[in-house]
Specification:
Elements lengths: L7 H4 L7 H16 L5 E2 L7 H5 L7 E5 L24 H14 L10 H5 L2 E5 L4 E2 L11 H13 L6 E5 L1 H4 L11 E5 L16 H11 L11
Parallel strand pairs: 2-3, 2-5, 5-6
Antiparallel strand pairs: 1-4
């Protein structure tokens, strides 16, 4: 039984009894416990950290990634984030470069984005688990249905919310965001392979805060200490 410890428990009540999720759960049991050929990231205890850290009622922005980092010790259940002491992957380094260019925020000494989550930035991947060294290996197993439902629930809210869609997988979620009070910001993925094709210079951090402030919502302090 999944327990978020906040209002997501009621918002997603019944989701974990649906047929697709039961199939997904069986797949994850096999991946985590029955086969020993691959390591699976993140730890099974960290899969839902994004939603545990950012209650439904507190969400002011949604940053949508792809699937978790697939290197040892990197993924901890929040898109693009790594725990303190883990070297920032290239995509995260590019995020920090854009943050500096956009708002002048200092490049931090670590890559943990929990301070963003605490302020209402939901750090949601489209797929929440992955095999070590195999990006995309858990796509098509049911996670997309689950994260679609999360976005549906956020789209239903009256509170204006910013959706930051970086990369093709995230941008595919655009069709789910239909309420006009929300702001959709799209850009290329911050990966070194695509960051220069529309991520650098997108100014999504300042644009997010401008939108929030225009609706009387506290802006995000993007500076990571």
């Amino acid at each position: 039984m999944v327990n978020f410890g906040n209002d997501w428990d009621e918002i997603l009540k019944g989701e974990f009894e649906k047929e697709y999720y039961l199939r997904l759960r069986d797949f994850l049991k096999e991946e985590y416990f029955q086969q020993r050929q691959y390591d699976i990231y993140p730890s099974m205890y960290d899969i839902f950290n994004a939603m545990k850290a950012t209650p439904y009622s507190k969400v002011k922005a949604v940053l949508i990634g792809q699937d978790p980092y697939h290197g040892p010790g990197q993924a901890h259940g929040m898109c693009f984030s790594v725990r303190k002491g883990v070297k920032a992957p290239p995509s995260l380094q590019n995020i920090f470069k854009e943050l500096y260019d956009d708002l002048g925020c200092r490049i931090p000494a670590h890559g943990c984005l929990e301070s963003w989550a605490a302020q209402g930035v939901l750090l949601l991947n489209t797929v929440l688990t992955v095999r070590a060294g195999q990006p995309g290996s858990h796509r098509g197993k049911g996670w997309e249905i689950f994260t679609d439902e999360v976005i549906h629930k956020l789209n239903e809210r009256a509170q204006p919310t910013v959706f930051l869609l970086w990369g093709a997988n995230a941008r595919a979620k655009k069709e789910l965001i239909t309420n006009e009070q929300h702001l959709i910001l799209e850009a290329a993925h911050p990966s070194p392979f695509s960051a220069r094709n529309g991520f650098f210079g997108c100014r999504h951090f300042s644009r997010t805060n401008e939108f929030l402030q225009s609706h009387g919502i506290e802006p995000v302090d993007w500076q990571i200490l």
